[in-house]
Design a protein that fits this description.
Blueprint: H1 5-9, E1 19-23, H2 35-57, H3 63-89, E2 91-96, E3 99-106, E4 109-116, E5 124-129, E6 132-136, E7 141-143, E8 151-153, H4 158-164, E9 165-169, H5 172-185
Antiparallel strand pairs: 1-2, 2-3, 3-4, 5-6, 6-9, 7-8
Length: about 190
């Protein structure tokens, strides 16, 4: 899209730090929102609209109670279909000789998450399709079902994964190898 990622990262780099790689999520692979979430929110929004219109037609005060649900459903549907894609397009990844950097921009400003190679000991790579994949910097979260040994799941929210992983990047094997080399040098 013509963005200068190096210029965006410059304020976050240390004076003697070397930038080795930059990237963004979902540049070659299309982002698809969770279809179950979209279907649920369409039903939510539709039912809230039906409730509000029906209550208003009946002349009751109950139509007012439907408005917050209508607004929440509309906002969540917007977030699923448009908001997540906007947030992903505003995210920048970088690998330097000392750390991995994730810049996430939203309406409140830009947040910077760093993972120092001297403190990283376990990263994982998930190949999505050929050379496109995800590199995770944090281990999966354990949870207990109460019946057996612990199970593991990834972050509880999309925001967790956005700030703790390089999501759907191109040439994932090369970037993984680059990060592994930097961890071994640290």
């Amino acid at each position: 899209d013509g963005r200068d990622l190096c210029a965006e990262l410059a304020p976050y780099l240390h004076p003697d730090e070397t930038l080795l790689w930059t990237g963004q999520p979902y540049t070659t692979r299309k982002f698809r929102p969770n279809p179950l979430g979209v279907v649920f929110m369409i039903f939510w929004f539709g039912f809230a609209g039906f409730w509000t219109v029906t209550a208003a037609a009946a002349g009751g005060f109950f139509a007012v109670f439907g408005i917050p649900f209508l607004l929440i459903g509309g906002y969540m549907l917007y977030q699923l279909l448009v908001g997540q894609k906007k947030q992903l397009s505003a995210t920048v990844y970088a690998v330097t000789d000392r750390r991995a950097i994730i810049l996430c921009a939203d309406r409140r400003g830009t947040g910077c998450t760093e993972f120092l190679f001297s403190r990283l000991f376990n990263i994982t790579m998930d190949e999505v399709d050929g050379t496109v994949g995800t590199i995770r910097f944090l281990p999966d979260q354990p949870y207990y079902t109460g019946y057996d040994s612990p199970r593991y799941r990834r972050g509880r929210s999309p925001d967790y994964d956005l700030r703790s992983a390089f999501l759907a990047i191109e040439r994932v094997q090369e970037v993984y190898r680059l990060i592994s080399e930097q961890i071994n040098r640290a």
